[in-house]
Amino acid sequence: MELRIEIAGNKVTCKQDGEKAVSAALADFLGNLWEASDNRPASEPIPETVRFAWRRGEAAVLVAEQKPVCHTVRWLADDSPVPFGRGAKYREARLAFPFVVLVVAFHGGNLTGQQECFYRRAPLEAIGDELLLPNLLNVARAYDQTCWLCLANLNPDMVQMPWDARVRKVWSHLFQAGFNASSEHHEGNSYWQTMRSVDRRVSSVAEWERESARNPFFPLTVEWKPSGKTVAAVMEEMMGRVWPMRAPVSAADLLPFFGPPAKSKPHRGFWWK
Amino acid sequence: MEKTKTATARAVRDEEIRLAPAAPASNQAEGYNPDVRVIYGAGVQSMPLVGMSLAQARDAAIAILGVDHRAPALVNGRPARLDYRVAPGDELEFVHHAGEKG
After folding, report:
1. Shortest CB distance from B39 goes to which of A69, A167, A186?
2. Which domains does chain B have, with CATH numbers?
3. How many contacts, defined by CB atoms under 8 Å, are there between A and B?
4. What ipTM was predicted for this assembly?
5. Which of A3, A234, A238, B83 suits a disulfide with A114, CB 3.0-4.6 Å?
6. B74 to chain A, minimum CA–CA distance in Å?
């Protein structure tokens, strides 16, 4: 299929395989091009904790970061009769965390199954910063993701929520939904199992809890293993899966540029609403 | 027109009164009130809550951090009574445990 755009006088014409497909006034066409490249302010505030955001089409990839803090979590008890699900037994544990970084891809505002959880020992400063492997149950190498975070029990339909609520939901599920061994069962691994040998202080939940009480910032001194991924690389991977870059191949793909003048259409901010 | 404006203004003031945290009850309010750390979900904030009852601190956290009103309050990781007075160095955490992963 051959696409041509011809400009003659005050008119722009798009031809597909030699046939005129669509045309517009040059000023309207240029206005639409300009509008498409303009980054307007968001109509909703940027959600708390979000450090990087990338929107393409109906997809958005967000990177959120939490500062080092202690969380009281529910962790699978050693004597739980089952590894997860009905009948699983939990114990409360107050655990110190380093910087925690979530990278989550949305499509049309809904979860996509693309969500990863990493650690860091320092705050994010650049998109090229490296990410470290966490030591958490329910975070696994799975589905072509290095640190896939299990959100299976979180309703992916978030279309009615404001963005701040979406981000809060994901954080809440991470820290406030019980940690269990479902990933060992479904994905065949979790980083809790593989990272226990990283440091004596996180070799068991009891040790982790003890050390957290002694020094809540000790996770910043643990030699967490590198993931081999940067923030940019993870965002790129996710965006590539959720909304791959595709050059226009037909006149239909170019229709938005031949539509009415941009100023007559409602503007869309980063967060859509 | 005038009546409409008055009604709107009053509604806003009522809402603010309902949400506004009460002042600390201790005499520390007279001078410097050191911050305590408040944790809710991924929200972490230092707030001058020393001397407040836990109930007052909780109202402040609901108004400022958007804490779920159902979330029980923990002080330094332990449950505490709502009349507990927040002390310097305390860490308040509002945990609304919700289901499990999997």
Report:
1. A69
2. 2-94 (3.10.20.90)
3. 80
4. 0.78
5. A238
6. 9
